[in-house]
Amino acid sequence: MAEKVKSILISQPKPSSEKSPYYDLAEKYKLKIDFRPFIHVEGVPAKEFRQDRVNILEHTAVILTSRNAVDHFFRMCEEMRTPVPESMKYFCLSESTAYYLQKYVVYRKRKIFHGKVSFRDLLEVIKKHKNEKYLLPCSDIHKRNITDLLDSINIKYTKSVFYKTVCSDLSDLADVNYDMLVFFSPSGIESLFKNFPDFKQNGTRIAAFGTTTSAAVESAGLKIDVHAPSPGLPSMSMAIESYIKKTKK
User: Under 8 Å CB-to-CB from 160, ≥6 apart: which residues?
Assistant: First the structure.
């Protein structure tokens, strides 16, 4: 029978809201739950960006898939001393990403469009503006399906890396042990082994969110104890609670 879980490390930033389901879990089952991002984002320096010979002002629209994309698009414009024209159109993945633009532009004075949740939703909006020349600021690790979908409807676009996903320094955790480690991306697994090349799972439980994360866990030779999402358990917190209930029996 599996031992009870008393301590969990979530490889993500600490939630900004006190209403996080992880806090509810901690209180309900008397757990020690800590948060620590295993990866973080760093902006590509303007000097490196120039080597790609991407001219921001050659584009009439920009596709923004996340808040990171928004932040680093405007950071790069500032570093390159490139004033963004008022005529620039913004196509955002979701409404929340669109509203985040208010940090940089006067919202009501700009042409801002957004999808609902998925990139396919946004693609339907982009289809109505096929004559624009789009700029797609992205990370060095990005979803290939976005460019595949743009190619499928013959959109003119330039994909350019504005920021990179890098492994965080976790050396202070060397002597700290948790009963469960929770991962949300293959980069998190990469960071674990970069920081601790000799990591042995032993009795540590591993929770993985998504198929690509699960594949990375297994290819690293580790055993997955908690999968999410799964039928009836759409979130990681729900999957962890289900596992904890089983170990309590």
Answer: 49, 52, 54, 135, 136, 137, 138
Does the pTM surpass 0.90? The reply is no
Distance of CA 192 to the CA centre of its chain: 17
Q: Where are the domains of the chain?
A: 7-38+170-248, 42-165
pLDDT in tens, 12-23: 999 888 889 999
CA dist., res. 24 & res. 33, Å (int): 10
- Cβ neighbours for 234, distance < 8 A, ≥ 6 positions apart: 228
- Asked whether the beta carbons of 190 and 216 are under 8 A apart, the reply is yes
Contacts of 243 (CB under 8 A, 6+ apart): 5, 205, 207, 225, 226
145-197 per-position pLDDT tens digit: 899 999 999 999 999 999 999 999 999 998 889 999 999 999 999 999 999 99
- Predicted confidence (pLDDT) at residue 71 exceeds the cutoff of 90: yes
- The CATH number of 7-38+170-248 is 3.40.50.10090
CATH annotation of 42-165: 3.40.50.10090
What is the identity of the amino acid at 50?
A: R
